[in-house]
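Customer escalation, tier 2.

The customer says the design service returned an amino acid string that "doesn't look like it belongs to this structure." They asked us to rerun it and document both sides in this ticket. The original structure tokens are below, unchanged.
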């Protein structure tokens, strides 16, 4: 079973190259336009849309859904990585910023010392949701609107590959859900 995944549209913090984490920031005007521009490339076979509850992802889903008119489900497990007190800063502004940036991009992070999450916690919540999704929609194609950190984790689980760069906002990606679930039982660089 394939799933289609889109990163939310751009926000003001994204433009400033600051990490959002779980800051609940809306789309910028540019982000809303990005979401509108994505509508024509969304596969017609999609029947359900799942989104992170953070407003930037919800707004992206709602804009895309103006032409599709499918059910949208807001799912906590799709929320961006909780970075604790580091959210809202650029990597350069953080003490140990370059080291933390490398760990974040290679999916080896642990933000618990800052009041956030570890990669193991994020992996657990995401894979538990994906297993439920597979059971519920084994015969349907779904669209997931989520965040850059979650997408990097999906790449790692599906392809055993670290993606150093974050996907561009509102890029349409396809992942093999069966492969992700199968590989989720393996250890991955800190996961």
């Amino acid at each position: 079973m394939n799933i289609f995944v889109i990163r939310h549209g751009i926000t003001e913090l994204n433009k400033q190259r600051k990490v959002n984490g779980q800051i609940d920031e809306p789309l910028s005007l540019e982000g809303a336009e990005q979401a509108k521009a994505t509508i024509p490339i969304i596969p017609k076979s999609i029947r359900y849309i799942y989104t992170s509850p953070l407003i930037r992802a919800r707004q992206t889903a709602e804009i895309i859904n103006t032409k599709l008119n499918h059910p949208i489900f807001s799912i906590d497990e799709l929320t961006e990585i909780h970075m604790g007190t580091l959210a809202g800063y650029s990597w350069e502004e953080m003490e140990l910023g370059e080291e933390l940036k490398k760990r974040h991009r290679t999916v080896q992070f642990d933000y618990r010392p800052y009041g956030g999450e570890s990669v193991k916690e994020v992996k657990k919540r995401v894979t538990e949701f994906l297993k439920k999704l597979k059971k519920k929609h084994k015969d349907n194609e779904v669209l997931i609107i989520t965040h850059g950190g979650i997408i990097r984790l999906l790449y790692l689980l599906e392809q055993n590959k670290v993606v150093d760069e974050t996907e561009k906002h509102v890029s349409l990606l396809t992942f093999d859900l069966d492969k992700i679930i199968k590989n989720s039982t393996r250890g991955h660089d800190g996961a």
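Tier 2 assessment: The sequence is consistent with the input. The helical segments are 12-15, 29-38, 55-68, 97-105, 119-136, 148-159, 177-183. The mean pLDDT is 90. Sent an explanation to the customer and offered a walkthrough call.
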